[in-house]
Amino acid sequence: MPQHIGIVGCSAEGAALCYRTLCAEGAALLGRPHAHPEVTLHTPSLADYVDCLDRHDLQGVADLMLASAHKLARAGADFLICPDNTIHQAMDRVLPHSPLPWLHIAEVVAAEAATRGHRRLALTGTRWLVDSGVYPGALQAQGLQWVRPTEAERSEINRIIMDELVPGIIRPEGVALFQQIIARMQREEGCDAVVLGCTEIPLILSDANSPLPTLDSTRLLARAALRRAVQAH
Fold first, then answer.
1. How would residue 233 be classed by pLDDT, with cut points 50, 70 and 90?
2. CA distance 121 to 214
3. How confident is the model at residue 136 (pLDDT cuts 50, 70, 90)?
4. 74 CA to centre of own chain
5. Percent of the chain at pLDDT above 70?
6. Using CB atoms within 10 A of its CB, is residue 136 exposed (0-12), middle (13-18) or buried (19+)?
7. Terminus-to-terminus CA distance in the chain, angstroms?
8. What is the pLDDT of residues 30-44, one digit of tens each?
């Protein structure tokens, strides 16, 4: 049997896209229609995570992640993924106490960027994520450069993510603003790809409408999890 994948969820839209990707793309790896590894998802209330993030309480974030990890371990999961870039800030507090191993979303994205030959990445995501060290360490390990949006752009991106995408609202104005910011980062900063560093951003951006090639953190993490689960088959 393939390994059992445990999803430590945070926001609903990102976790749902990750779950759908696991189920939809498993068949190609397993070689029979409708097949996918066993998957279990657990998520506490998003409000609990947001309260911790607003207080800069990374230990509180880690405690919520670990509570999910232990529940998923009891459910039989073999390893864990978290389809939320922002709360990876707490991963160094999670790993020493986790009952199961994890795939790290930023490491998966950085490896894919290097494989594709990208060199200078535009980093998008919540303000918590963009201001953090989640991606710089992973990108630096692959010899990659990165550029953060301006302060004003970070605020607008954060507003669109939290007020629109997380509740599942898609507005043309939000899509257009993302496109404008990415185009500016290509033109003025020399970026050659964009990290969709919030698991909701792929709901509105893809290679079809982005000025730069996209690194879809949600689907890349799901695909890495599928490969790991099936390789153990």
1. low
2. 10
3. very high
4. 24
5. 99
6. middle
7. 5
8. 999 999 999 999 999
Which tens digit of pLDDT belongs to each residue from 149-183?
999 999 999 999 999 999 999 999 999 999 999 99
Q: How far apart are CA 46 and CA 189, in angstroms?
A: 34
Give the burial string for 76-105 (b: 16+ CB within 10 Å, else e).
ebbbbbbbbbbbbbbbebbeeebeeebbbb
What number of CA atoms fall less than 13 Å from residue 8's CA on the CB side? 34
Average pLDDT over residues 97-113: 98
Assign 3-class secondary structure to the chain: CCCCEEEECCCHHHHHHHHHHHHHHHHHHHCCCCCCCCEEEECCCHHHHHHHHHCCCHHHHHHHHHHHHHHHHHCCCCEEECCCCHHHHHHHHHHHHCCCCECCHHHHHHHHHHHHCCCEEEEECCHHHHCCCHHHHHHHHCCCEEECCCHHHHHHHHHHHHHHHCCCCCCHHHHHHHHHHHHHHHHHHCCCEEEECCCCHHHCCCCCCCCCCEEEHHHHHHHHHHHHHHHCC
Whole-prediction pTM value? 0.95
Beta carbons within 8 Å of 155's beta carbon, 6+ residues apart: 127
Beta-bridge partner residues of 8: 42
> Does residue 127 register a pLDDT over 90?
yes
- What's the rounded Cα separation, in Å, for the pair 80 and 102? 5
Question: Checking phi first, is residue 38 left (phi over 0); if not, alpha (psi -120 to 50) or beta?
Answer: beta
Q: Which two tokens stand for residue 174?
A: 């939000």
